[in-house]
Amino acid sequence: MKLVVAVVQDQDSNRLSNALTKNQFRATKLASTGGFLRSGNTTFLIGTEDSLIPKLLDIIRDNCRAREQMVAPVSPLGGNADSYLPYPVEVEVGGATVFVLPIEQFHHF
Ligand code: 2BA
C-alpha cells in the first residue's frame, strides 16, 4: 500500500476531488500554503494499493494543469535589500507536485 501526497492548485481541487470519488479513490483534502508564493493550495492525502498507483497518477495528471502566476514583491523587513525585486515576477506553478510514500501499516477502526 502507498500514501500519495499531491499538492495541487486550489482551482483544480474540486475537479480532482470529483474525479477521485468517481474512480473510487478515498482522499483527504488539506488546506495548505506554498512556501514560495505563500498563497493557498490544496494537499490531497490518498491511501491506495500499489497496483492502482498508475491509474491514480493519470487521474491527477488529467485534472491538474500548470498555470502562470505572478509573485508580488515582498519588501525585505530588516533583510538584505540586494535580493529585493521591486517588480512582480511570473513563475509557472505546476499541475501537481506528487510524492508516493510506502505505508508500513494501515488501520481503519
Ligand atoms: P510554492 O512553494 O508556493 O511554489 C509555487 C511555484 O513557485 C513552484 O511551482 C515553482 O514554479 C516556483 N518556485 C518555488 N520555489 C521556488 C524557488 N526557490 N525559486 C524559484 N521558483 C520557485 P511548483 O514547483 O509546481 O510547486 C507548487 C507547490 O507545490 C509549491 O508551492 C509547494 O506548495 C509544493 N511543492 C513543490 N515542491 C515541493 C517540495 N519539494 N516539497 C514540498 N512541497 C513542494
Automatic annotation (TrEMBL):
InterPro entries linked to this entry: CdAMP_rec, N-reg_PII-like_a/b, N-reg_PII/ATP_PRibTrfase_C
Pfam family, one: CdAMP_rec
Record protein name field: Transcriptional regulator
Gene label: yaaQ
